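Researcher: We're teaching a course module on how sequence relates to structure. For the next exercise, students receive a sequence and then see the predicted structure as C-alpha cells, so they can try to spot secondary structure elements on their own. Here is the exercise chain.
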Amino acid sequence: MRSDLPFSYTVNNSHHVDGLIASSPKWFTNTSGALNLGPVSGHVWLKVELNNINAIEIPLLLSIDNNLLDKITAYIQLHNRSLLTLDLGDALPLVQRPIKHEAQLVPFDLPARSTGVIYLQIQHHGALNLPLSLWHPIEYLKYKSKFNLLYGILAGVIIAMALSNFTLYTFTRKKYFLSGSFIIITIWLLNVHLYGFSYRYIYGNWQWLQQYAQPLLVLYSCLLFMPFIAKTLLTQKQLASYQKPLKWLWPTSLAVALLLITIPIDTALLIAYALSLILTIGYLVLAIIKWRQNTPQRYAHVSIFSALTLALAYQFSFELGLLSGALLDRPVTYLCYLVISIILSYTLTRKYVDERDNKIKVQQSKIAQSQAADALLKERIQLQEQAQEDLESSIDERTFELQVTLRELEEKNRALEKLNMEDALTKVKNRRYFDKRIMMEVRRSRREQTILSVVMLDIDHFKKINDTYGHLVGDQAICAVAEQIQLHLKRPHDEVFRYGGEEFVLLLPNTDSQGAVELADLIRSDLEKSQLNVGENTVTMTISAGIRSAIATDSKNPTLFTDFADKALYQAKQQGRNRVVVYENT
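Model: And here is the predicted structure for the students to work with:
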C-alpha cells in the first residue's frame, strides 16, 4: 500500500481528457497523498503516473479515500492499450461503479515493465478533500476485513444501545427511553452514511437521498436531543415554561428539512452543520450551568455534549476545507458518537433507577406513617426481600457452576473434535477430516473458478518394509514420510492427510498442475535422499505420486478428484514407481 502516493493536479473545465491534454494545463505536484483545495468551482483533474519495473503484470486498486465525492471520472491509459473510462461517485447509482463497494475504487492491471497514467476528473459541491492511496487487491482486502471487523463491533455496540433503550421503553413506557433510542439510531445512520455503507446497502440507487442524507441526519441528530434535555435536565417548572417552544420544535424542524433539500447540497451542508453546532453549543452551555447547580448526572450531560460538539466541529472542519485526509483512518467522529451512545444509555437508565428509588422511598415513608399493624407487613416484606436475595444468590451460584461445567464440556468437545480430525499414528489430519475439507474446497473452486490440485502419495514397496523389518519399523516409516511431507507445506491452506495405510493425500487449493508437480517431485526427491535409522537397520524409501488439477465443475461429486489422482498414482506404479504422474483427460 502507498498512502503517500504522489500525483499532480490542476483546475481545468475540460469535459474530457483529450480536451485537457490539448489545453496543455499547468500541473502542480502533490507528494503527501492527500489534497485539500477547499471549495473549488471548476473541475479538478488529478494525474497519477505509475511505473512497473517487474517482469509480471500487477493488479492494482487506486482508492480515492473520500466516500462522499459527487462524481469521479477515471481515464486509464496503460502501455499499448486503449483508453479506459470509469465512472464513480455518490451522485451516480452504485451499479455504475466498476467495483460495487462503499469505497471509491479504480481497478486496473499495470503491464510488466511499463508505465501508465491515470487521469481523474473530480466534480464536487463544497470543499474538495482528495486523499489517494494505491493498493494491491489482496492487501486492500486484508485492510478492509480488519476495518469492517472493528467497525462492525463498534456499530453493534451502538445498535445494542438503541435496542436496549427501545426494550426498556416497551417495559417501562418511559418516553425518554424512546427518545434515546431515536437519537442513537440517527447517530448510527449518520455514521453508516459517512463511512459509505448506506450507499452500498441501503439507498445505492437513490442519488438524491445519498446527497442530502448527511445534512438531514446531522441536523436531526442534534434536534432529537431537545426531548432528552427536557426530560433529564429541566425541572417540571422549567419544562412548563418551555412547553410552547417545544411544541413548535418538530414543525419547525420539518420546515428546515424541506428547505435544506431545495437548495444546493454544499449550502445545505454548511447550514445544517452551522445550525447543529449552534444547538450543540447551547446544549453544552446549559449542561455546564446545571453542572454548577449540582444537578444529578451533571458529568454525564457535560460529557455527552462535549463529545457531540467535538464530533460536529471535526466533521464541519472537513466541509470547510480546514482538515483533509482519509476519514476512515481518523475515527474521531465514530468514537465520539460511540461515547455519546454509551453515556446516553447510562444516563437514561440511571434516571429510571433514580425515579424508581424515589418512588420506593415515598412508598416506604407512607408505610412508616401508617398504623402499628403495618409493622408486621413491613417485616414480612423484609423477609420476602431477604428470601429473594438468597434466591438470587443461589441462582448466581448455580449459574456459575453451570458456566464452569459448560466450559469444561466445551473444552472436552474441542479435544474430542481434534481426536476425530487427527490420525493417531502420524498426527496429521485423517481421512474423515479430508472428506469434509475436499467438499469445501471443491465448492470454493467451482464458486471462485480457481484450480484445485489433489496429490495422492504412496510409499513404494511398503509391504516389503513390513515383511523385512516388522510392523513397528513400518509405522515409523509412515511417520517419517508424514513429517517429510509437512516440512514442504508452506501455505496455510495446503494440508496433508493420511488417506489409509501407507497412502497420503495432499489438498492444494488455488494451485495449478505445474505447482503441484513441483511440490510432489520435491517431496519425492528429498525422501529418496533421506534414510530412516531404526536400531541397527537403515531403511530407504521412495514414493509415487498421482496428481489431478482442475477447476471443479460438479460440487456434488468431490471424489472425482481423488479417483483421477488415484488413477494417476496407479500409472506411476505401472511405470516403475518413484515418480510423479499427472492425470490427463483422454
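Model: If you want an answer key for the exercise: The first strand starts at residue 7 and ends at 11. The CA atoms of residues 571 and 581 lie 7 Å apart.
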